[in-house]
Design goal:
The protein is mainly β. It has one domain. Helices cover 12% and strands 57% of the residues.
């Protein structure tokens, strides 16, 4: 009996808090430049530089710059990019994106880490 009351109390507390969730719609635009060396075995080494903007329906907007190397050997891909985001209040965030592995099987699989920030992103 005490256990049932305890469970009821916990569930009542959990569901008594109102949830304030908003839908976020993000729009992005970007352009990039890729400078590439092609080796005799068709492996490549490229430097990626991209720039763009991000806006959302909550009133935020950001300028985005990314750069880093891309290495391709047969089906193997390795990239290590850093992106800088600057919002409308000049607050910044830096994000590192790493991906390494089989180009076909691991499409889109990688790691992203925010490693430095200012303002509200801290």
């Amino acid at each position: 009996m005490i256990t049932n009351r305890f469970i009821f109390l916990i569930l009542s507390l959990i569901f008594s808090f109102s949830i304030n969730a908003k839908e976020m719609v993000i729009q992005t635009t970007a352009s990039y430049k890729l400078e590439t060396f092609i080796y005799s075995n068709n492996s490549t080494y490229s430097i990626y530089k991209g720039e763009g903007s991000l806006t959302n329906n909550l009133g935020d907007y950001r300028h985005i710059r990314c750069m880093g190397p891309i290495e391709k050997k047969s089906n193997f891909l390795k990239l290590d990019h850093i992106c800088e985001y600057i919002n409308q209040n000049n607050e910044k965030m830096w994000h590192r994106v790493n991906r390494e592995g089989n180009q076909g099987a691991d499409a889109g699989v990688g790691k992203g880490v925010i490693f430095d920030a200012t303002g509200k992103y801290c």
